[in-house]
Write a structure and sequence with these properties.
Blueprint: E1 6-11, E2 24-29, H1 33-36, E3 42-49, E4 60-63, E5 73-76, E6 81-84, E7 88-94, H2 97-111
């Protein structure tokens, strides 16, 4: 069962358009746990990339490698989407509460 703030390896293939992030990659679970811990069939995620771009906030947020997340990565805030729960492969790591708050701040900045 996935929880908000966790980083999971997922299979994002197939993709629909060239500007969407695809392949097997880490993602941040952004959906609230009320839905995550129910029978709801999809989960809202934000993909990560190791193609780093410095000073890209609020479009991206850098996180350092930890646990099973092997490389420093950018959370690509602009690529938020829902995926089917069958795409989840394995849990890699978790964000700290302050990092998750920063993701929310970045997301609010680009959507408000």
């Amino acid at each position: 069962m996935v929880s908000r703030g966790e980083i999971w390896l997922v299979d994002l293939n197939p993709i629909k358009k060239n500007n969407e992030i695809g392949k097997v990659r880490p993602v941040l679970v952004y959906q609230n746990n009320e839905l995550n811990h129910s029978d709801y069939p999809t989960t809202i995620i934000i993909p990560l990339t190791t193609s780093l771009i410095d000073d890209a906030e609020p479009l991206r947020m850098r996180i350092s490698k930890r646990d099973d997340l092997e490389k420093d990565s950018d959370i690509v805030i602009t690529q938020i989407r829902a995926i089917d729960n069958t795409r989840f492969i394995k849990k890699l790591a978790s964000l700290t509460p302050s990092e998750l708050a920063k993701v929310k701040e970045c997301f609010n900045e680009i959507t408000m």
